[in-house]
Amino acid sequence: MAYDVQTNSLAEFWIPFTDNRGFKQDPRLIVKASGNYLTDHHGGTVIDGSSGLFCSPAGHSHPKIIEAVHRAMQDFTYVAPFGSGHPLSFALAERVARLLPENFNHVFFVNSGSEAIDTALKMVMAYHSALGNDRTRFVSRERAYHGVNMGGVSLSGMVNNRKTFPSVMPNVVMMRHTWSEDELFVRGQQQSGAELANDLQRMVDTYGGQTIAACFVEPVAGSTGILTPPKGYLERLRQICDENGILLVFDEVITGFGRLGNKFATDVFGVTPDIMTMAKALTNGSIPMGAVATSDKVHDAIMNQAAPGAIEFFHGYTYSGHPAACAAGLATMEIFEEDDLFGRAAEMSDYFLDAVFSLKDHPMVRDIRGIGMIAGVDLHSSEKPGARGGQAQKDLFWNGMHVKFTGDTGIIAPMFIAEKTHIDEMMEKFRKTLDGLA
Ligand SMILES: Cc1ncc(COP(=O)(O)O)c(C=O)c1O
Predict the structure, then answer these.
(1) How far apart are CA 277 and CA 299, in angstroms?
(2) Atom from ligand 1 closest to the CA of residue 251
(3) What is the Å distance from ligand 1's center to 149 Cα?
(4) Which atom of ligand 1 is nearest to the CA of 152?
(5) Which of 18, 171, 388, 397 has its CA 20 to 30 A from that of 297?
(6) CA–CA dist 280, 341 (Å, integer)
(7) Radius of gyration of the chain (CA)
(8) Contact 404, 54 (CB under 8 A)
(9) Which pairing describes strands 172-175 and 186-187: parallel, antiparallel, or unpaired?
(10) Ligand 1 centroid to residue 362 C-alpha, Å
């Protein structure tokens, strides 16, 4: 891709979630991406240590996805999704449903993880409305990330994502997060902390279970730095929800489609929610798309309350189930299956986690947590929290590795197509960069 930072202006584009002024002084542009690698605008090679933003496990610019989208675009570049449709959206919903728990047979398409969360919130409301329930309270968790739309901000447990946006949904209460100084360097699930799920019971005892509509959790809290659920924690949440008619929503935007070494977190932890949100790897990151899947119980309640001929759920987006996204999603599902990429993720996990946890003794490293093919590496903060992480991210890039940082935490998530040599290369570059920071 031809791009010349000397002649092309960087001024106009307002970059998301980025130090715009710093970035424009020291731009880091990608002009090509293929497989595990990116090419920067100076021609340098950068290994992708976070699968983009955890969304491209099958590798960048996969030819089957390019071909499928190209083919679909020759048939139609757009089809109105309200009151008409095209076969690709039905085919993709059927294909995704095959991967879901048995009682999940319905999939609603959106364009991002944030839209999936807003849609899930509205499905919860529609479900309780259908049952005649008066439940208006939502439960979320400290350190949660559920995207950036107003629903997601309302559920957010990350202070920088909400402190400048005070006008959020009312009636959201927070459980405590599950990270503890007492159990550092956790590989897989934490041993202790299941009792933190009793925070939900305390909400029930304080507000009345019949006032609580749903409890939203990321089964593994992702963007905050990979906080795995303590053993027994998700089971206890499920139990409290069941006892009180509360819907349990798993935000699987990061954990879905093999990231933890199985199809979804629900398969890894053996706990089934009532609603699941997903996005990212649904199209291998190639075309924006998210989805919400519901159990038959939730779906049927919403369908059955509407009079015959009436619209059952007053919600949808102009680009819900866009043909390009559906074609990309179908090709992605085929690649996952044909190349057994979830199996590959499971197989590579031990090698990957061994490699990441070998950083344990580095003086810059405060804590590491990992599961499947994702790990969070906390660096010791300098005087200004986040500054060291920001510096590490830049240095890593110029040392030839892309890693997503949140504050002082780097989140490493290789592609499922990565070979051991790719993981070795990542760890060599990561260690070298930490050495440079020390
Ligand atoms: C758990 C979770 N939910 C929701 C989102 C929001 O997704 P998007 O950025 O596609 O809106 C993210 C993004 O990282 C996420 O990790």
Answers:
(1) 14
(2) 1
(3) 10
(4) 4
(5) 171
(6) 15
(7) 22
(8) yes
(9) unpaired
(10) 30
- Residue owning tokens 């350190």: 143
Q: How far is the CA of 146 from the centre of ligand 1 (A)?
A: 6
pLDDT digits (tens, 9 = 90+) for 32-76: 999 999 999 999 999 999 999 999 999 999 999 999 999 999 999
Place of tokens 């447990």: 157
Q: What is the rounded CA–CA span in Å between residue 403 and residue 294? A: 33
Q: Strand 172-175 vs strand 137-141: parallel, antiparallel, or unpaired?
A: parallel
Q: Which atom of ligand 1 is nearest to the CA of 288?
A: 10
How many C-alpha atoms does 416 have within 13 Å on its Cβ side? 29
Q: Is 433 left (phi over 0), alpha (psi -120 to 50) or beta?
A: alpha
By CB neighbour count within 10 A (0-12 exposed, 13-18 middle, 19+ buried), where does 205 fall? exposed
Share of the chain above pLDDT 70, in %: 98
Sheet holding 401-402: strands in order across? 30-34, 37-40, 45-48, 401-402
Walk me through the domains of the chain, giving residue ranges and CATH numbers.
20-58+340-437 (3.90.1150.10), 66-338 (3.40.640.10)
Question: Cα dihedral sign for 94, 98, 99, 100?
Answer: positive
Q: Read off the pLDDT of each residue in 382-408 and give the average, rounded to a whole number.
A: 95
CB atoms within 10 A of CB 75: 12
Please say if the pLDDT value at position 79 is more than 70.
yes
Which tokens sit at 272?
A: 């089934």
Q: Where are the beta strands (DSSP E) in 158-207?
A: 172-175, 186-187
Q: How confident is the model at residue 197 (pLDDT cuts 50, 70, 90)?
A: very high
**SS3 state of residue 409:** strand
Enter the tokens of residue 271.
């706990």
Closest CA to ligand 1's atom 5:
147
Main-chain dihedrals φ then ψ at residue 15, nearest 5 degrees: -85, 130
Q: How would you classify the pairing of strands 290-295 and 104-110?
A: antiparallel
Is the confidence at residue 350, as pLDDT, over 90?
yes
Quote the ligand 1 centre to 134 CA distance (angstroms). Answer: 29
